[in-house]
């Protein structure tokens, strides 16, 4: 052991170095805490959150063409679609569409499978409910989208 | 394994040296609920005082049957599930799986996709090692590095979120390439992250590397020789810490790793401290690779031509990559249908965990915690 | 009342005056104030630790989490009290009580000022050493009576730790006791006497003896961290190894007694370090900055500190984000600041400020130690059991012996 290392050991240079780092980080400018309900976290554009079904804003008709590709693509098979062939226009028409977010893992495969860009995973992320019924989204809920949560006393 | 069998196995371990004074041996159940078994690992310790005479790992508390799930999903559908195995390094899992299926399909991802994959997996290695460093230091009693590493990991996760929309279980890659094109300013942001993270790595080192308590707690603890590592099949930083230059990125390059220049750090003693140094140096090397990859990011398509419905030819394939924790391999048997006949995962944590017993014998209880930390296990991967 | 006035004229501690009535009041006062200090200490620890770890710490319970200690105390008292099956009920009950009682007993001899002590024992230091080393008994009882593996191991570790650090600690204390005999020729074991010796020698013992005093102080400072089971020597309750060590099986109120005992012991041991080496209640720079003006300036410090804290609170309250949810909090913070400001103004009054300042300087010095405790905890990894013994027996003990001999030689040769 050389003299320098011995001196460093006696004067606890290694410990003081560590202490100085923790001391420096006390500065309030170093804080990284987000006070969640008051400060909203930053969410990326491509974030995969609460699902939503788009509707044509002019007619109010769903963009969904009931092709069931999303239901096929879903690994958890949590999308259930019921459709009916319109006898007049010979087109498939969407009857019900349920999306069970309690089993969803937000992989985004349904979104990718959709040929008409009707289903999309939005940037909303507040999906905590007190029971499961709130987690199974039906057509009106999906078309309306998530209502922003308000925290207040 | 039933509890009775575990205890009877431990009963068979007898101390070859006569215990000091007339001491009683004690069997201690550590876990599955314990602050530092990194999840739900249960370790049954046989103790003489504080000295460990032998131990038995009990795993399976987080078993979800991922391999069985694979048999009932199509190849594309199984992709998100692999993220849930090693959730700390989800991107690496995705890469391993996608490359295996590509090998089965005889498809090669386009060059741009390969570069993006390299950037993201190396970022993920950085993030994974940051989690390891924080938790390992926490196990040894330094509670603060955890927060510094997690703060810096946040920056990595932000890039993941911007790129693929998720932070932890990313589902970033698809079979045949990448689903997402890079977002605007991707290169600049990754380079900025590299500049940001390098001084931070120095800072972690300043807190720990020369600290006498850290040295005492890690030097000569959990020693494992190179021969033992090879015999047990340990890979990754564990085998490199014992002085074997074995890195799949160099040994059998995949995804274009042969184009990048980087060193494979190795240790000499094979103890916890060497593995710590190896991992810290690996973080720096990852940054080096990321810089090269971003600088040379080529233009072009990001998705190879793969059919919409994947029906790989009958056959079987094994492919492995160097995940942050070691060799992560997928063995897939195809029967020609849309669903794999059998998927077998070779998780690095699971194999490395087998070294725990030989690393801990004769050490103290406090060392068991340090060794579990240094093996860098993720129970999601051990139990699958 | 006349009793009190008589006592005030005496300028001695109630114990010396033989005034049992006032001694009892002093004891109760210390009990209450130390408990309040422990509460403040838990708040400070959470806040400082959080800021070192780039977090905010408690923020929701009251303005900036100021009511957090009260919330914690309430929660602990209302929590279900669990006694594990197979535990020795009597000892299980006795252990936390004994830990707390022992921690508080040490305060009998700690002088917060010339007159601010319960009593002045002529064997004060010995009493304190004897009583504080009993603290480990409670821990061992707790570990044994829980009938569980982790507490048992924590208790064993604690006993070994205590044995290895008491000796180095004792030797360091002897150094300070030796130094008391330098000018006056007669050493003393009385805590008040030790401070008075430092006053007479016009130096704190930490600066005397060409660094010998400082070395003894450092040894004591290390040993006292080990003695109070704090990081990096917190082996008996090593969270990542033994879950919670000796108090794994305790919950609710019993656990809070352990907690109270631990923090009380921390304050007690720091007080001893302050008394022995840092001049107890003496104000700093009494040599360099002497004279009437400086005396007055230093007398004003306690009040000014409180006024400064009050201003900080009020400014902080005013600077809080103007959100509806935070309105009550900012008003609360301002009220708290106003309260502090009132206390500060009272302390500025002549007559009050002379009597307060002893306690103020003592508390300031203890506060530095409390900060160090938190700082260590934020920075260092934990020692292993055998390494801790190694440090105690092979490093601290020989050094302490050397320093003791050095001090003795220095005293003789001087």
Please describe what this structure looks like:
The complex is a heterotrimer of chains A (153), B (384) and C (414). By secondary structure, chain A is of the alpha+beta class. Chain A contains 5 helices and 5 strands. Chain A has helices at 3-10, 13-24, 69-73, 109-113, 139-144; strands spanning 51-53, 79-85, 92-100, 119-121, 136-137. In chain A, β2 (79-85) and β3 (92-100) form a beta hairpin. The N and C termini of chain A lie far apart (65 Å). The relative contact order of chain A is 0.18. Chain B contains 16 helices and 8 strands. Chain B has helices at residues 3-12, 66-70, 75-82, 90-105, 111-140, 145-164, 186-208, 212-218, 226-232, 237-241, 248-251, 272-295, 348-353, 356-360, 365-375, 379-383, and strands at residues 25-30, 42-48, 51-58, 173-174, 177-178, 315-323, 326-334, 340-346. Chain B has a 3-stranded antiparallel β-sheet. A 3-stranded antiparallel β-sheet of chain B has the order 6-7-8. Chain B has a two-stranded antiparallel ribbon with strand order 4-5. In chain B, α5 (111-140) runs antiparallel to α12 and α7 (186-208) packs antiparallel against α12. Chain B is globular and about 70 Å long. The mean pLDDT of chain B is 86. Chain C is mostly helical and 414 residues long. In chain C, α4 packs across α12 (252-277). The interface between B and C is medium-sized, with 32 and 29 residues.
What is the helix fraction of residues of chain A, given as a range? Answer: 10-25%
- The arrangement of helices and strands of chain A along the chain is HHEHEEHEEH
Biggest beta sheet summary of chain A: 3 strands, antiparallel
- Quick one: overall form of chain B? globular
Major sheet strand order of chain B: 1-2-3
Structure in a nutshell:
Chain A is an alpha+beta fold and 153 residues long.
Secondary structure topology:
The complex is a heterotrimer of chains A (153), B (384) and C (414).
Chain A: H1 3-10, H2 13-24, E1 51-53, H3 69-73, E2 79-85, E3 92-100, H4 109-113, E4 119-121, E5 136-137, H5 139-144
Antiparallel strand pairs in A: 1-4, 2-3, 3-5
Chain B: H1 3-12, E1 25-30, E2 42-48, E3 51-58, H2 66-70, H3 75-82, H4 90-105, H5 111-140, H6 145-164, E4 173-174, E5 177-178, H7 186-208, H8 212-218, H9 226-232, H10 237-241, H11 248-251, H12 272-295, E6 315-323, E7 326-334, E8 340-346, H13 348-353, H14 356-360, H15 365-375, H16 379-383
Antiparallel strand pairs in B: 1-2, 2-3, 4-5, 6-7, 7-8
Chain C: H1 2-10, H2 14-17, H3 20-52, H4 68-78, H5 89-105, H6 124-132, H7 135-145, H8 149-180, H9 191-200, H10 212-227, H11 239-242, H12 252-277, H13 292-319, H14 327-348, H15 352-379, H16 385-413
Helix pairs in contact in C: 3-12, 3-15, 4-12, 5-7, 5-12, 7-8, 8-10, 8-16, 10-12, 10-16, 12-15, 13-14, 13-15
């Amino acid at each position: 052991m050389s003299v320098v290392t011995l001196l460093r050991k006696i004067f606890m240079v290694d410990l003081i170095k560590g202490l100085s780092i923790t001391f420096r980080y006390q500065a309030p400018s170093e804080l990284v805490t987000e006070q969640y309900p008051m400060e909203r976290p930053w969410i990326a554009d491509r974030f995969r959150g609460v699902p939503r079904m788009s509707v044509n804003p002019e007619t109010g008709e769903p963009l969904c063409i009931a092709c069931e590709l999303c239901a096929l693509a879903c690994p958890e098979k949590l999308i259930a679609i019921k459709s009916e062939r319109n006898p007049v226009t010979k087109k498939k028409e969407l009857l019900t569409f349920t999306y069970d977010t309690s089993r969803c893992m937000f992989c985004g495969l349904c979104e990718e499978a959709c040929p008409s860009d009707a289903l999309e995973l939005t940037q909303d992320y507040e999906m905590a409910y007190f029971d499961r019924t709130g987690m199974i989204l039906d057509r009106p809920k999906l078309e309306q989208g998530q209502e922003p949560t308000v925290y207040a006393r | 394994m039933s509890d009775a069998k575990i205890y009877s196995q431990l009963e068979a371990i007898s101390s070859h040296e006569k215990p000091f004074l007339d001491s009683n041996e004690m069997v201690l159940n550590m876990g599955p609920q314990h602050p530092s078994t990194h999840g739900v690992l249960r370790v049954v310790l046989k103790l003489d005082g504080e000295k460990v005479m032998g131990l038995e790992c009990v795993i399976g508390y987080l078993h979800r049957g991922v391999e069985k799930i694979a048999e009932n999903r199509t190849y594309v559908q199984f992709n998100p599930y692999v993220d849930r195995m090693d959730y700390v390094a989800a991107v690496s899992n995705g890469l391993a799986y996608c490359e295996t299926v590509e090998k089965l399909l005889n498809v090669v991802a386009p060059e741009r996709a390969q570069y993006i994959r390299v950037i993201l997996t190396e970022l993920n290695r950085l993030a994974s090692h940051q989690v390891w460093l924080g938790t390992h230091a926490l196990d040894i009693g330094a509670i603060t590095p955890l927060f510094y590493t997690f703060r810096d990991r946040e920056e990595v996760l932000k890039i993941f979120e911007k790129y693929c929309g998720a932070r932890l279980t990313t589902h970033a890659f698809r079979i045949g390439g990448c689903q997402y094109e890079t977002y605007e300013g991707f290169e600049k942001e990754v380079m900025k992250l590299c500049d940001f993270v390098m001084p931070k790595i120095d800072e972690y080192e300043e807190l720990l590397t020369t600290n006498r308590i850290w040295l005492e707690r890690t030097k000569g603890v959990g020693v494992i020789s190179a021969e033992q590592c090879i015999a047990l099949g340990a890979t990754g930083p564990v085998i490199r810490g014992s002085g074997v230059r074995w890195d799949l990125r160099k040994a059998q390059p995949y995804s274009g790793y042969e184009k990048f220049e980087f060193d494979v750090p190795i240790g000499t003693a094979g103890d916890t401290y060497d593995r710590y140094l190896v991992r810290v140096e690996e973080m720096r090397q990852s940054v080096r690779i990321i810089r090269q990859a971003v600088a040379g990011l080529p233009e072009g398509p990001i998705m190879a031509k793969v059919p919409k419905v994947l029906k790989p030819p009958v056959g079987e394939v094994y492919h492995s990559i160097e995940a942050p924790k070691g060799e992560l391999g997928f063995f897939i048997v195809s029967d020609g249908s849309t669903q794999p006949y059998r998927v077998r995962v070779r998780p690095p944590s699971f194999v490395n965990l087998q070294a725990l017993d030989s690393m801990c014998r004769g050490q103290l209880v406090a060392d068991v915690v340090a060794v579990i930390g240094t093996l860098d296990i993720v129970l999601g991967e051990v139990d699958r | 009342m006349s009793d009190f006035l008589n006592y005030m004229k005496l300028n001695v501690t109630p114990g010396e005056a033989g005034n049992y009535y006032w001694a009892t009041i002093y004891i109760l006062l210390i009990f209450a104030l130390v408990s309040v200090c422990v509460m403040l200490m838990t708040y400070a620890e959470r806040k400082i630790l959080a800021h070192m770890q780039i977090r905010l710490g408690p923020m929701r319970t009251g303005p900036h989490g100021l009511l957090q200690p009260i919330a914690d105390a309430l929660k602990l008292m209302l929590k279900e009290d669990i006694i594990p099956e197979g535990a020795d009920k009597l000892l299980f009950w006795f252990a936390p009580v004994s830990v707390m009682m022992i921690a508080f007993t040490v305060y009998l001899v700690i002088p917060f000022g010339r007159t601010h002590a319960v009593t002045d024992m002529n064997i004060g230091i010995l009493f304190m050493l004897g009583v504080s080393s009993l603290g480990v008994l409670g821990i061992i009882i707790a570990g044994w009576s829980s009938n569980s593996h982790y507490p048992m191991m924590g208790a064993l570790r604690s006993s070994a730790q205590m044995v290895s650090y008491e000796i180095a600690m004792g030797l360091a204390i002897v150094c300070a006791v030796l130094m008391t005999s330098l000018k006056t020729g007669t050493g003393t074991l009385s805590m008040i006497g030790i401070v008075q010796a430092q006053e007479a020698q016009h130096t704190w013992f930490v600066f005397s003896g060409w660094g010998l005093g400082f070395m003894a102080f450092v040894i004591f400072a290390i040993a006292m961290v080990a003695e109070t089971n704090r990081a990096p020597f917190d082996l008996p309750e090593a969270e990542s190894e033994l879950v919670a060590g000796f108090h794994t099986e305790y919950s609710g109120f019993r656990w809070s007694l352990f907690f109270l005992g631990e923090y009380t012991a921390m304050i007690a041991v720091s007080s001893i370090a302050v008394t022995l080496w840092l001049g107890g209640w003496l104000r700093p720079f009494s040599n360099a900055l002497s004279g009437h003006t400086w005396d007055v300036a230093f007398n004003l410090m306690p009040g000014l500190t409180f006024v400064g804290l009050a201003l900080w609170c009020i400014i902080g309250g005013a600077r809080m984000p103007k959100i509806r949810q935070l309105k009550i909090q900012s008003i609360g913070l301002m009220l708290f600041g106003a309260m502090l400001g009132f206390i500060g103004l009272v302390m500025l009054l002549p007559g009050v400020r002379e009597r307060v300042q002893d306690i103020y300087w003592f508390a300031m010095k203890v506060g530095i130690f409390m900060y160090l405790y938190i700082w260590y905890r934020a920075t260092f990894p934990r020692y292993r059991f055998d390494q801790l013994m190694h440090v105690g027996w092979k490093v601290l003990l020989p050094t302490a012996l050397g320093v003791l001999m050095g001090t003795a030689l220095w005293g003789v040769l001087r």
